[in-house]
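Q: What structure does this chain adopt?
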Amino acid sequence: MLSEVFYHPESGGQEYMRRGCCQFAVFTARAPGKESANEDCAGWIRVPGDRWIFLVADGLGGLPAGASASRLAVETIIDRLDGIDIGDEIRGALLDGIDAANAAILARGAGSATTLVVAEVSAQGVRPYHIGDSTILVTGQRGAIKYQSVSHSPTGYLEEAGILDEADAMMHEERHIVSNVLGSNEMRLEIGPLLPLARYDTVLLASDALRDNLNLDQVIARIRAGTLEKNLAALAAHCQQQMLGNGEGAPSHPDDLTMIAVRRNG
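A:
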């Protein structure tokens, strides 16, 4: 059996780990003042060849059982990856797990759904996967953007096309409409390229609360350089202050927040 971890504490918190080719920090917390369940879930698993799979799922608010949908997605995918042998096709097992997670959520018949971002990280680099409006960002130590996922949402597509700028997209009344989710017969998976990772490059996976409250420059400024653990804590604190209405020049959209930040070792 391979090691696996789920990170879904109701009270929230942060952890830091250094294992094999990677170091990573994980943060999750409910929205400020929220008493119901955290609808986000994070997970990670080490697979043969010193490869790591990191996942962040964000259950859709307003739909039944969003918290259970996000956890079911992470558990189902990790279950498909757990126990694979050296020589097995990891990408195939991951894709099978995503399909199985979609089927499992649909089978519940509760109308629940979740977004999902996945990063496959190894000494060779990172390959991103995503469904929905959560974020994957890869940035260099000096702030260069090496990869940024496009939100599967009307506002995300308009921003990518240059019709909306970032500030307008953050304030748009339809910013929470998501056009692609796990838990849908029309689910589609977007797979990014294999990107080489320099020593201090940072891979960031985050639920949509991050980009609903902080613009891209604010995110990069706090994650690109310095120790990973302190960077993620500072980013989380800034985002949570924004949710409380204590930020400057950006909207305040309280929501559950979950992030994983990853760097390669050496």
